[in-house]
Amino acid sequence: MKKILLVTVVTAAGFLVAISALAKQTDPAENGPRVIRIDELQQRRPAVPFDHFKHASIHGYNIKCTTCHHKSKGTDVETTCSDCHKSRREGRRLSLKGAFHKRCVGCHVMYNNKMHKQVAPHRCEDCHKKTKTVKK
Ligand code: HEC
Ligand code: HEC
Ligand code: HEC
Ligand code: HEC
């Protein structure tokens, strides 16, 4: 009797470990940063706090990596936006500011329209917060 119980417990424990390992593995957001500050420009507007994990996680907004990292393959991200999107003076069609605004604000406005509610930040101060408090 005791032996059977022990086997059951051990099997159940092993199963749980396997499940949690799988859950961790299958959230691709684990391959990216958590909360970051986008602060490469920051000349006229304050840096933008960005919850990378929440945007990408299957338990969050579940946005595909390639929606933002549009030149990457799958979850294989090795470049930042600024590797390609430079300042307008460097002759790129889309500046770094333009790339962020088009991607970030573009999705938020679309989402708000769809939800008929202003939930995703779209006003300047929503993203460019004056206070320097960044939630970690
Ligand atoms: C909503 C947009 C968005 C989504 C979705 C997204 N990312 Fe990102 N990611 C960013 C931004 C913005 C940065 C910061 C890049 C910069 O500053 O140029 C970044 C940075 C990164 C970095 C750091 C790159 C470096 O060299 O510093 C990695 C790694 C990364 N993301 C991986 C991922 C993976 C993996 C996924 C999918 C599971 C993902 N990202 C989904 C927007 C996104
Ligand atoms: C390997 C180079 C490269 C990287 C990295 C890159 N881009 Fe781009 N992106 C381009 C090119 C090339 C275009 C085509 C238009 C142009 O020449 O500017 C473009 C176009 C865009 C466009 C306009 C077209 C569209 O799809 O709506 C947006 C928005 C954009 N990028 C956002 C981003 C963001 C945000 C990041 C980082 C998460 C990023 N890009 C990373 C090269 C890159
Ligand atoms: C493909 C869609 C999409 C893209 C691209 C996107 N977001 Fe979001 N974002 C959302 C959604 C959906 C929400 C949550 C709205 C809600 O609360 O229901 C959100 C919420 C936010 C919030 C509010 C706090 C939070 O994290 O919930 C901030 C800040 C934010 N996004 C910044 C950004 C920035 C900066 C970028 C570009 C680097 C970006 N987002 C790109 C869809 C997107
Ligand atoms: C969804 C978030 C979001 C919203 C809303 C938004 N921005 Fe931005 N903006 C960004 C991000 C991300 C950057 C890149 C920040 C950096 O790298 O320092 C940026 C960069 C900029 C820059 C260039 C950086 C600088 O300081 O010179 C300016 C100017 C700017 N935004 C103005 C505005 C104005 C004006 C509005 C309102 C009409 C606005 N933004 C709304 C996310 C947003």
What does this entry look like structurally?
The chain has two domains: 1-27; 32-127, Cytochrome C3. A two-stranded antiparallel sheet has the order 1-2. It contains five helices and two strands, in the order αββαααα. The protein has helices at 2-26, 52-56, 65-68, 96-115, 124-127, and strands at residues 35-38, 48-51. The chain has 136 residues and is mainly alpha-helical. 43% of the residues lie in helices and 6% in strands. The model has no long low-confidence stretch (mean pLDDT 84). The chain is elongated and about 75 Å long. Residues 68-71, 79, 81, 83-85, 92-94, 99-100, 102-103 line the site of one heme C.
First-to-last CA distance: 50 Å
CATH architectural type of the largest domain? Alpha-Beta Complex
> What fraction of residues sit in β-strands?
5-15%
Largest beta sheet: strand ordering: 1-2
List the helices and strands and how they pair.
Layout: H1 2-26, E1 35-38, E2 48-51, H2 52-56, H3 65-68, H4 96-115, H5 124-127
Antiparallel strand pairs: 1-2
The protein binds heme C (4 copies).
Short note summarizing the structure:
The chain has 136 residues and is mainly alpha-helical. The protein is built from five helices and two strands; from the N terminus they run H-E-E-H-H-H-H. A two-stranded antiparallel sheet has the order 1-2.
Notable features of this structure?
136 residues; mainly alpha; Cytochrome C3; 2 domains; 5 helices; elongated; binds heme C
